[in-house]
Amino acid sequence: MNPRRRLMLGTAALAGLRLPTALAGSAAPLSAEERALHALNRLGYGPRPADAAAIADQGADAWLERFLTEQLTPRLLAAPAALSERLAGMEVLQLGQAELLGRYREAVKAAREARREQAQGGKPDADALNAVREQVRPLLAQAATARLARALHSPAQLEEVLTEFWFNHFNVFAGKNAVGVLIANYEHQAIRPHVLGRFRDMLGATAKHPAMLIYLDNAQSVAADRPPRRTVANPQRANGLNENYARELMELHTLGVDGGYTQRDVTELARMLTGWGLEPRKLLAGATGDAFAFDPRRHDNGTKTWLGQSIAGAGQAEGERALDMLAAHPATARRLAHKFAQAFVADEPPASLVQKLADSFLTSGGDLREFTRVLMRADEFWQREAFQAKFKTPYQYLLSSLRALDLPLANPQPLLQALSQAGQPLYGAQTPDGYKTIAAAWRNPEALTQRVQLAATLGQRSGVSAERLGSTLGASVSAATRRTLASEPAGQQVALMLASPDFMKR
C-alpha cells in the first residue's frame, strides 16, 4: 500500500479516539506532569526533548514553578548563541524605518520606469529591475525567518507567544504597499518591547508606526479643507478624511464592536488623528531613523465631540488624549480580557476568568505583565477542562512539530509555503482583525489533510523514533493513541503521532 495512503488510513483510525464529551469534562485535577506540559503548550510552542528531560530531572512541580517565574522576566533567559548570531546577521533587523522605506521607494521607482519604457516600445532592463526588487524581497523573508527562529529556539517562549498574540491583535498586512518591508521593524519596535509592558505604550507605538499608518491609510488622511498630496506609502493623492484607522482603533484594537461608540465617533476620531503621518524628509534618499511625524498643516484643528466629550483643537495632543481614553476604558478591558482568555484557555472562556483579567487590566492601568500573571495563576487556566482544549492554528502546529522533533530551521522557505497552503501565511492576514484563534477557523477536512502531509514530511526528515517522540510529548498523548500507534508500521508511527487528534490540540 502507498505509504501516504496508509498514513491517511492510520490517521482516520486515530480520529476515532476522541473522548466523549462527558469524559472530557471530568473534574479530575491535572497531574504535575500534565501541568508542566500544559504550560509548555499554552505559554510556549510545545515541549522539546530537552524540556522533557528537564522536567524528569528536576521534578514537574519544581520545574513548573521556575518556568512560570522566568517566563515573566525574559531578560533572565539568555538566547542560544546560534540564535543571537543568526538574528545579528539579518539586515532587516538593523535598518531603520527611513532606510526601509527608501528600499521600497527605489523598487517602486524602478518598476515605474520599466513600465514607462515598455509603453514607449522599448525593452526594460530586466536584470536592473530585478536587482532593485531583490533589495526588497529578502526583507520580508528575513522577517519571517527571524520570527520562526525565535519561536523555535528562544527559551523565552512566553515572550514569543505574546508577540504572536499582540501582533495579531494589531495586525498589519505585508502585501499592502510598503508594509512588507516594514514588518520586521513593526514587530521589533511596536510589539515586542511592550508585550510585558503597558498596553497604552503598545497602542501608541502601533498608532505611530509607518506600517500601521500605511496599512490603515492614516498617512493619507487630511482635514477636509487641506490640500492633498502624494506620499511614498501611497502614490495616489490623499483625498480628504480617511476613517479606516479610527474605525479599527475602536472596533478591533480597543473598545470592540459593542463598545458603545457611534459612526459619528468614528468620524470625529478620524478628525482628531489627521496629521498623524510620515515625515517627508524621512522619505528622501539617505534619510535615517523613524518616519512618523505630526503635520499641523494637515490636521483638522476644529472642535470635536467624541464619546460624549467636547475635544478642543490641540494638534497632536488630541490623538494622544484619545489613546489615553481608549486604553483606560472599561470596554477595552473587557474586550482584551475575553480575547486573551479565548486565545490561551478556551474558545468559550470561563466568564469568571474574563472578569479577573478585566479587573486586573483596569486596576493595574493596563500592565500587561500583571495581566499575563493573572492568567497564569488563575484556577481556570489549570482546570482539567482547559487541558488540550484548544485546537492548534497552522502556525502553532508547525512550531510544535519542529520543537517536538528537535528539528533545526535550516531552510525556512518550505515551512513558510506550508503555512501559506494551510491558510495562515506569516504576516499574510489581509484584514485588520488578523487570524482567528478558535477551532472552527482551522478544523476542516482540507486543513487536516494538509497537516497529515506535513506530518509525513517532517517525520521523514527528523529521524526521531516514535519512542523518543512519545517521551517528549508525555501525557499529552493518550494511552489509547499509543496503543493504536503500536499496531502500525514503525516507519509510520512518528508521522501518525504528529497527525493524531491528541497532537493537534494544545
UniProtKB/TrEMBL annotation:
Protein name: DUF1800 family protein
InterPro entries registered for this protein in UniProt: DUF1800 (IPR014917)
Pfam families: DUF1800
Organism: Pelomonas margarita
Signal peptide (from-to): 1-24
Keyword annotations: Signal
